[in-house]
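Researcher: Sequence recovery benchmark, item below. Answer with residues only.
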């Protein structure tokens, strides 16, 4: 229990799977994409249409999100999917066409 208290004191947070993370720190894919990642680091993703999110392991997260729901911070793009860091620290994917950005 003492180690958890220390982690929280240092500002670490725990996601739904029990993994500790530092809020606001995202991994960068490569140095060439660094500028794009920095530009998108603080952009919020908002659902425009009913959307089912996809976990990084390929499973789908139910129930679907209603329009005008804030998903989290954009951390990158993978094809037609946008990678998003949620408030709980989990990385999820959502169809880019279903999102708007702030």
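Model:
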């Amino acid at each position: 229990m003492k180690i958890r208290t220390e982690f929280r004191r240092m500002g670490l947070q725990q996601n739904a799977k029990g993994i500790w993370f530092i809020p606001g720190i995202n991994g960068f894919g490569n140095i060439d994409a660094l500028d794009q990642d920095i530009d998108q680091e603080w952009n919020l993703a908002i659902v425009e249409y009913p959307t089912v999110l996809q976990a990084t392991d390929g499973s789908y997260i139910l129930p679907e999100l209603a329009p005008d729901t804030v998903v989290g911070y954009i951390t990158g793009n993978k094809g037609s999917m946008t990678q998003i860091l949620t408030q709980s620290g989990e990385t999820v994917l959502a169809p880019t066409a279903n999102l708007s950005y702030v």
